[in-house]
């Protein structure tokens, strides 16, 4: 079995168990079955340790630990409906956007996303996000991409990264420095992002920043129309394409992140090789 497929299989199964145990009508028989499956997965992991990366083992163990904790709480009748899973999705109503909310964007509020990171403390790796409603934290010298169709992504704390983030819903980025951001999402919101280059597509050609500085938005020569940025550090200011502002400027080039995309898609998940680190350094050389 392919190593990456093995990890994805474990995560998918654990996520399915999380959904099962979160149901309001879970009974003792179902609970016993979930506990049995958790134990079987735990045993299987021990057999496959050599095929998994350290950060993958850490992630799987975190999810297993949380599941066993919930099982214990439900069995003792204590706090069975208060517990929040690691990486629990934001409530659906927080992700729904109507026309009025797109026209009148509100100041950034990340408080609802400040749960425990589902993945963190990465350095010098390539990692593909596959978990729905992902919260990634404390990442340096990495290439982070996402599979298509995720509902939302929240990235917090990092430097010297290339991020390629695709989501059907919003992408939230906090406290990131000296990085390249490539996005394809419904809504982009950034807070305390400094000295970063931004490529890609946002559904309404508009994104929100707060306490950001030295941002460069790279657009293709063929792009038309105005691309606006709402800066809530200065509500009176709206930066528009070709005019720039104190915190952001726009640059038109022949490609729209294509070179970066080609380079990082050739790199496999896991620890970056010396050659891969060289590619990352080359991509970031122009902004660090």
Could you characterize the architecture of this molecule?
Pfam families: TBCC. One of its GO terms (cellular component) is cytoplasm. Residues 133-218 form the Tubulin binding cofactor C-like domain. The protein has 288 residues and is α/β, with parallel strands linked by helices. It has two domains: 3-76; 96-284, Pectate Lyase C-like (3 Solenoid), CATH 2.160.20. It contains seven helices and 16 strands. The protein has helices at 3-21, 28-47, 54-76, 92-95, 99-103, 258-265, 274-284; strands at 119-123, 125-129, 134-140, 143-146, 153-159, 162-166, 170-177, 180-185, 187-191, 194-202, 206-210, 213-220, 228-231, 238-240, 248-253, 270-271. The strands form two sheets. It has an eight-stranded mixed sheet with strand order 1-3-5-7-9-11-13-14, with no helix packed on it.
How would the blueprint of this fold be written?
Elements: H1 3-21, H2 28-47, H3 54-76, H4 92-95, H5 99-103, E1 119-123, E2 125-129, E3 134-140, E4 143-146, E5 153-159, E6 162-166, E7 170-177, E8 180-185, E9 187-191, E10 194-202, E11 206-210, E12 213-220, E13 228-231, E14 238-240, E15 248-253, H6 258-265, E16 270-271, H7 274-284
Parallel strand pairs: 1-3, 2-4, 3-5, 4-6, 5-7, 6-8, 7-9, 8-10, 9-11, 10-12, 11-13, 12-15
Antiparallel strand pairs: 2-16, 13-14
Helix pairs in contact: 1-2, 1-3, 2-3
């Amino acid at each position: 079995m392919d190593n990456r497929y093995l990890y994805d299989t474990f995560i998918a199964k654990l996520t399915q168990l999380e959904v099962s145990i979160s149901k309001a009508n879970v009974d003792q028989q179902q609970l016993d079955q979930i506990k049995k499956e958790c134990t079987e997965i735990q045993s299987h992991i021990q057999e496959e340790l050599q095929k998994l990366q350290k950060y993958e083992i850490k992630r799987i163990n975190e999810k297993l630990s949380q599941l066993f904790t919930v099982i214990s709480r439900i069995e003792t009748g204590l706090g069975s409906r208060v517990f929040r899973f690691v990486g629990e999705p934001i409530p659906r109503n927080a992700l729904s956007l109507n026309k009025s909310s797109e026209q009148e964007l509100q100041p950034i509020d990340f408080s609802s996303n400040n749960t425990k990171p589902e993945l963190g403390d990465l350095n010098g790796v390539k990692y593909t996000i596959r978990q729905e409603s992902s919260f990634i934290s404390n990442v340096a010298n990495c290439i982070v991409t996402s599979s298509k169709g995720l509902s939302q992504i929240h990235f917090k704390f990092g430097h010297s990264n290339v991020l390629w983030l695709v989501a059907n819903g919003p992408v939230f980025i906090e406290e990131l420095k000296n990085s390249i951001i490539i996005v394809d999402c419904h809504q982009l919101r950034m807070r305390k992002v400094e000295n970063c280059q931004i490529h890609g597509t946002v559904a309404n050609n508009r994104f929100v920043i707060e306490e950001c500085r030295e941002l460069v938005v790279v657009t293709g020569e063929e792009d038309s129309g105005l691309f606006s940025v709402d800066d809530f550090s200065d509500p009176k200011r709206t930066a528009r394409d070709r005019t720039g502002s104190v915190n952001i400027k726009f640059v038109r080039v022949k490609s729209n992140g294509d070179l970066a995309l080609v380079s990082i898609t050739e790199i496999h998940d896991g620890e970056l090789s010396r050659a891969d680190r060289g590619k990352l350094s080359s991509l970031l050389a122009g902004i660090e």
